[in-house]
Amino acid sequence: MEILRHAVVLVHLVGFAVLFGAWVVEAIGQRRFTRIMSWGMVIAAVAGIALAAPWGISYELNYVKLGTKLVILLVIGALLGIGTARQRKNGSVAPALFWSVGILTFVNAALAVLWR
Ligand code: HEM
């Protein structure tokens, strides 16, 4: 069970890497939302929700932290959705939307690592 949980953590980290990596590429490039960002978010979300259940561990989960991460993830999803739709219409995404996605993704990773 423990090894399976570690495998799911690995998938969760891959989702984070895909979302944040795709965002960094765009931050130094055209500053547009891409499908890869949404894919990374979905991978991180599915694996994160699976990890939010207490299986394969012998310690208590921090549900306040997990709730905070879930709310932030929902905001990232909403921003990506709104931004992608506007980008389709106007050809560009508002800087506030673009930077918020990167900052919030970074905040969620920081919460995961720093809030014990
Ligand atoms: C974009 C959104 C997210 C990012 C960037 C992110 C990032 C991370 C990172 C970097 C870790 C590894 C931390 C470590 O092992 O020290 C982690 C672990 C974890 N994440 Fe997330 N996460 C996100 C969303 C979520 C969501 C929505 C949930 C569930 C509600 C969640 C639940 C967890 C859990 C339970 C762990 C710990 C795994 C363990 O040690 O058993 N994550 N996350």
From TrEMBL:
Ranges annotated as spanning the membrane: 6-25, 37-57, 63-84, 96-115
Keywords attached to this entry: Membrane, Transmembrane, Transmembrane helix
What name does UniProt use for this protein? Fe-S protein
